[in-house]
Design brief:
This protein is α+β, with helices and mostly antiparallel strands. It has two domains: about 110 residues, Ribosomal protein S4/S9, N-terminal domain (Ribosomal Protein S4 Delta 41, Chain A, domain 1), CATH 1.10.1050.10; about 80 residues, Structural Genomics Hypothetical 15.5 Kd Protein In mrcA-pckA Intergenic Region, Chain A (Roll), CATH 3.10.290. The protein has twelve helices and five strands. The chain has a five-stranded antiparallel beta sheet with strand order 2-1-3-5-4, covered by helices on one side.
């Protein structure tokens, strides 16, 4: 029994098991973690637009300190991309050492993750579903199976679905992704395949994210 409890704790450390809608409510905005549900009136942030917990309504709209603002933005970016603290911290350190604009470097690392690209081209309705598709060996990169969701793609890489797995995507083929396809990606619906055309333009991706204050948080 003790061993089973330990295994459960180890499993929790590897994944964020908090309800996705609570994460949106904590950040005070839609992070689009639940696919189609986020576009319906059933979205909890429409009904309860305040932080979760018994004191949530009391602290709604309360002004944050500079540290609190940086922390919340860092948490928001982590929630959006589905990354835990250690891996996210490694991304930030790599971005800061990469030369040039650290914010642009960080966004490149996050946006060029395989699971994110699958979500962006519309083969999955959320990044968590995209991670499952990759880890279950349904995705090909340059005609080779890749089962690592965090694999970094490069300009020119082609993403497709294994022939035997295409029946799993019939619903997405009938009901395409509701978000707009980014300019740096290409997608052919008939072939159900995409391609990385260029690095993500910083101005296009940063619209809802304040990346500079995330860099500041880790530069303290």
């Amino acid at each position: 029994m003790v061993r089973a409890r330990l295994n459960q704790e180890e499993f929790k450390m590897a994944r964020n098991l908090d309800p996705k809608c609570k994460r949106c409510r904590r950040e005070g905005e839609k992070l689009f973690l639940k696919g189609d549900k986020c576009f319906t009136p059933k979205c909890p942030i429409i009904k309860r637009n305040y932080p979760p917990g018994m004191h949530g309504p009391k602290f709604h709209g309360q002004r944050l300190t500079q540290y609190g603002t940086q922390l919340r933005e860092k948490q928001k970016v982590k929630h959006i991309y589905g990354i835990l603290e250690k891996q996210f911290s490694n991304y930030v350190q790599k971005a800061m050492k990469g030369g040039g604009d650290s914010g642009a470097n960080l966004l490149n690392l996050l946006e060029l993750r395989l699971d994110n690209v699958i979500y962006r081209i519309g083969l999955a309705k959320s990044r968590s579903i995209a991670r499952q598709l990759v880890s279950h060996n349904h995705i090909l990169v340059n005609n080779k199976t890749v089962n690592i969701p965090s694999a970094q793609l490069k300009v020119g890489d082609q993403i497709s679905i294994k022939e035997r797995s295409k029946n799993l995507f019939s619903e997405i083929e009938k009901n395409p992704q509701k978000q707009t396809l980014p300019s740096w990606l290409e997608y052919e619906q008939k072939k159900m395949a995409g391609k990385v055309l260029s690095k993500p333009p910083f101005d296009e991706v940063k619209q809802t994210l304040n990346i500079p204050i995330v860099i500041e948080f880790y530069s303290r």
